[in-house]
Amino acid sequence: MSTSSHYHRTLFEKSPNAIAYHRLLRNDTGAVCDSLLLHVNPALEVLFQRAASELVGRRFLEVYPHHSERTQRFISSLDEASRSQTEITLSFHAHFIGKWLRTTLFALDADTVASISTDITQEVMQEIEFKGFLQSNLDMLAVGDKNGRFIRVNQEFENILGYRFNPIILEYSLYFKPYCSIALYFITMSRQTVGHWSAKPCCEIH
Fold it and tell me: Fewer beta carbons under 10 A from the terminal one: N or C of the chain?
């Protein structure tokens, strides 16, 4: 085995991400209808809670037959990655293991696609928890970056300022009303401060 092949094999075996190689299976019309699992790495065995011997050489829909909507979406994405020769990234709840995954698909050749999956369950749960806190809070709350752009606001923020939040245009649309000095002050503060901060309005809202 060459040094290059050794490193490629070691990368596959020791990667912390779950990796699988899929051979695309097509129906009579040439459309991708399933995939054959060619190889899986140890990280995928741990994540999917299945030994390689239970996966390799079997069709994807044979291994996971009870989740037709999600598996069909996955098969369609394999087809798209093969046809477009571009990366396709999916984020979905994998019911068969009870976890949220982020999976990137990319073609190795015309009929083989690799998938790299990461467990994002903790990230998703934190996002759900944060959204709940943001929307249930009766205070006016906003999340911004150091460049002064609003990333997210809660309902009370929209109610007080009279704006529907749009992350693309909100920073600029605030200049359209003279009584939005409080929001402009928030923008100024966010350019100077990293982390949690609070501020009083520089003028009253009329």
Answer: C
Q: Of residues 157 and 85, which shows the higher confidence score?
A: 85
Sheet with 99-109: list strands edge to edge.
Answer: 32-40, 18-26, 112-119, 99-109, 88-94
Distances (CA, A) of 154 to 132, 151, 162, 182: 10, 11, 12, 16
**pLDDT-derived band at 187, boundaries 50, 70, 90:** very low
> For the whole prediction, is pTM greater than 0.70?
no
Token pair in block for residue 47: 């994540």
SS3 content of the chain, % helix, strand, coil (to 5): 40, 25, 35
Nearest to 202 by CA among 192, 187, 194: 187
Cα(103)–Cα(121) distance, integer angstroms:
13
Q: Residue 9: which residues within 8 A CB-CB, separation 6 or more?
A: 1
Phi, psi of 4 (to 5 degrees): -65, -45
